[in-house]
Amino acid sequence: MATATHGHSKHPHEEHAHANGRKFTVRVLRQEMAHSGSHWETFELPHEEGMNITTVLQRIAANPVTTDHEQTTPVAYDACCLEEVCGACTMVINGRVRQGCSALVHKLLEESPTGIELRPMTKFHVVRDLVVDRSPMFQHLKRIKAWVRVDGYHDVGPGPRISPKEQEEAYPLSRCMTCGCCLEACPQFNDRSPFIGPAAISQAILFNPHPTGRVDRDDRLAVLAGQGGIVDCGNSQNCVKVCPKDIPLTDSIAKAGRDTTIYKIRKWFGR
Amino acid sequence: MSEEHSQAQAAATDGYHFLIHRLHSLTGLIPIGVFLMMHLFTNASVLAPGPAGMEYQKSVERIHALGPLLVPVEIVGIFLPLLFHSIIGFMIIYTGKSNTQHYRYGGNIRYSFQRWTGVIAFFFIMYHVWQLHWVGQPFRGGSFRLYNESGGPAAAVTTAEAIKAAWWVAPVYAVGILASVYHLSNGIWTSLITWGITIRPRSQQMAGYVCAGFGVILSLIGLGALRGFKTFEVGSGAVQTAESLQEATHH
Ligand code: HEM
Ligand code: HEM
Ligand code: SF4
Ligand code: SF4
Ligand code: FES
Predict the structure, then answer these.
(1) What are B90-107's pLDDT values in tens digits?
(2) ipTM of the complex
(3) A93 and A45 both lie in a single domain
């Protein structure tokens, strides 16, 4: 790392491990197909100004040669929006789940000067290399009816009004991009647990108070009060820490805990 | 897992799944948590001023005043809820996969601690109850007595004997106390989220301070009691002999 006394050095670039042109290594966990084994491959590339992980993967694709001088295939990866709103490029970078498009190489090298490590998320099935199948998340959204019901495409007139206060509550929850970071970091979301995870719980809490979404409220609460619902959360609060959209997931979890309890008591009294 | 399968499975166990977990939370708080608090308070009465162990003797006698009802009350009020909470607790532990090495957040570490302390509390309680209640003389099993022939604070004497039986007993108790108290204090904090009482980060933070304070105080009470027994001597203080102990009981 550069120190103040070297500020006038003739070769300031050499002081930065991540300066432009400086070589750095990227270790990638590769897997050819859904059920094949995995292995590590290491690449070396020169740093570029403002480089992110998507760029890194593009450069590797352009010249897929490992540090052992072996010709290999381009690393498969997903990306779409390139501005952290679609969630497609989510992967585990230096041991922590995040989006490749917004993960800047120079920051990553500060975290881990020896090089960058990329692997697919561990809580989803791998399709190939860094591409995973996030469809279970969409199944969960279907289960909790994460939508507002409209009966067709004809004009039904203006929707009900929503107060600014309600909007303020709802907007942060609506930013979810189903990226899977929260599930990857959640200790209770894994193959030993039926837990649907914080993203779907939060979506239920988004749609429940909505004037039109309210009609499906009890159906959502029934799912949240069922197998894999709210009681399978262990309150570690990792989800809220890793969510790239700063969604107040733990607020939603506490609300879901309260609402399901009231719902169940209502049911026991047969109402 | 196909969706139909998971939904059919869910339909079959839905009602119980929720109820079981809510009862797990409740048993942790109401019979077991309250018991732990009262138990450590009672034990700390060994530190009360006056003749050594008399206050503790009286407290334990008050509990044993239930007579033949004591055993059913203990079974229904403590052991069955504890057994239920433990079985479900172990099942919950199985459904989690700790990842504190990659995500070193305070909440995540507390989550792991909640599980470790539950397991420690489980084995500690087994050992503890065996040591004081059940037979097995070689390692001083079943050594607790409320009365002995000479009268006096037999409860305190036998408890102190149990704790002084070997050098490692007091450290084991210290670990047992700290684990149980952490588990209860952090459990109160999570239960406030479980039941939807603290929702905002701010209220959860405030609750965190209160629970931490509660934990520190209860730990001091528990460790104080332990120290009281570890340093307990029948012959110490104002009371010298069995006869004068007996007198102290009657006046
Ligand atoms: C200072 C430390 C402790 C001391 C001196 C102590 C002492 C005792 C004694 C003397 C008994 C038998 C009481 C009787 O039969 O009336 C007892 C029972 C018991 N203790 Fe402790 N204890 C301590 C800490 C703990 C802790 C940390 C727990 C954890 C929850 C615990 C759980 C129990 C249970 C479950 C019983 C059986 C219930 C009963 O018989 O009423 N104890 N303890
Ligand atoms: C010393 C006696 C015990 C007390 C006072 C106690 C109390 C509690 C409390 C109050 C909670 C919080 C529930 C919630 O978040 O809503 C809890 C959670 C928990 N307890 Fe205990 N417990 C005790 C013993 C045990 C034992 C022996 C186990 C067995 C391993 C255990 C395992 C757990 C687990 C795994 C949780 C976390 C539950 C979750 O995150 O949903 N506990 N306990
Ligand atoms: S809640 Fe946050 S971390 Fe979870 S899927 Fe949505 S955007 Fe991603
Ligand atoms: S708070 Fe619950 S949902 Fe969020 S990471 Fe922890 S266990 Fe998972
Ligand atoms: S490409 Fe859309 S979030 Fe990265």
Answers:
(1) 999 999 999 999 999 999
(2) 0.89
(3) yes
